[in-house]
Amino acid sequence: MTTVRTAIVIGGGIAGPVTALALRRAGIAATVYEAYPSTADGVGGTLALAPNGVAVLRAVGADSAVTAIATPIHRTAMAVGRKRLDLPGLADVPPLQVVHRADLHRALHDRAVAAGVVIEHDKRLVDTQETATGITARFADGSTATADVLVGADGIRSTVRTLIDPDAPGPRYTGLLGFEAVARHEVDAEPGTMTFAFGRRGYYLYWPEPGGGTRWGVNLPQQRPMTLPEARAVPAAEWLRALRAAYGDDDPGRQLMLTSSADDLQVVGSLLIMPPVPRWHRGRMVLVGDSAHAPSNSSGQGASLAIESAVQLARCLRDLPDVASAFTAYERLRRDRVEKVAARAARINRAKAPGAVARALMPLLMPLLMKTAMDPEKTMGHEQRYVIDWDAPVTSDPAAR
Question: Which domains does the chain have, with CATH numbers?
Answer without folding.
Answer: 6-71+98-171+274-350+377-384 (3.50.50.60), 172-273 (3.30.9.30)
